[in-house]
User: What shape does this take?
Amino acid sequence: MTLGGAQLDILWPAFVAGLIVTATHVPLGVQVLERGIVFIDLAIAQIAALGVILADYLGWGTSGLVVQAAALCAALAGAAFLRWTERRWPEVQEAIIGVVFVVCSSVAILLLAHNPHGGESLKDLLSGQILWVTPAQLGAGAVVSLAIGSVWFAVRRNAGRTGFYGLFACAVTLSVQLVGLLLVFASLVVPALATYYARRNRYARAYAVSVAGYATGLLVSLAADLPSGATIVCAMALTGALAALAFRVPRPHP
Assistant: This one.
């Protein structure tokens, strides 16, 4: 397939958005898998999305600093709550995370029930609008992503679970508005899962899985005129499956 100038103008910002999300989600995804709280990203992402919906419901619009602050505050409050439940009831934390996700999703549906564009808003929050990201979003996203990544790699050994939850909430708040909830989950879990048995260069291989998934998915979605978000998720899952077969060296049982 030969790409024209107009097609490249659409693809490169979307691919850069994928790289921005990948930068923070690969290391955080490895931690999520190791900690056994795989669905926390869905819950925090949904809470951040609920913050955006609530801001719109209150008449603050769907963009701008006020909405970003609403999403971040909602995500941080959700992260603090889940950290508290983890301390109190660690044996049922995964179930609590699932309930939080379902309740926040239901509240979002209720808030959008009388919005004539409610269905479209829900679709955008799920699959995102990665093809329509703006240079301003990319610039701000790159700065925030660099800050989060730098802090994480500097303090990850001493951050503790509270620090992890806080950084995680910041990262997810950024990414869910760039690429949508489905791609947030895929970007966190698929690369980490694909490289779970990799004994060497795990981060490098996980980054490769994510980047290949974004690149392949964007090209296929353009060639076949398919929704980009869903196509990237499927491409990343296929890339991850192939990588998992290549890297599979079973870990010894304790």
In short: The chain is about 80% helix and 0% strand. The CA atoms of residues 152 and 159 lie 8 Å apart. The chain has one domain: 5-247. The radius of gyration is 18 Å.
